[in-house]
Amino acid sequence: MRIFMVLMILFMPLSTNAQVENEIVGVWFNEEKDAKIEIYKQQTKFFRKIVWIKDPLGKDGKPAVDEHNPNPPDKKRPIIGLTILQDFVFDGISTWLGGTIYDPNDGKTYKCKIQCSNRNRLEVRGYVGIPLFGQTTVWTRAQ
What is the pLDDT of residues 116-127, one digit of tens each? Predict the structure, then answer.
């Protein structure tokens, strides 16, 4: 019985850490609430893709596309299903680092970090160079 208790105590922090690490997995509204973004995990890294937008049609009445992308072939990619956050790794405490975020509104990719202030709120900071030179938006979990 003592061995069981010791093993339980040793592995409890790992279980809790894994729960915190996966806390960002799910569907989130962006700050403007005009898009829903799904955050998912592949192996050890986290990604995000757009799964819903308020205005799904472009000016031409067809599904909205990545028209601001600087790469001509990518300008025809549909916005819905577009992976715009990639390669994030959990730091073991409360932040996901090392990834990038693509903004389809300006066609640019930024370094990014994500902090989970509570189960239903993410602070997503895109930046150039270092986090000091960036902007934070708040996402809320979609119910």
Answer: 988 899 999 999
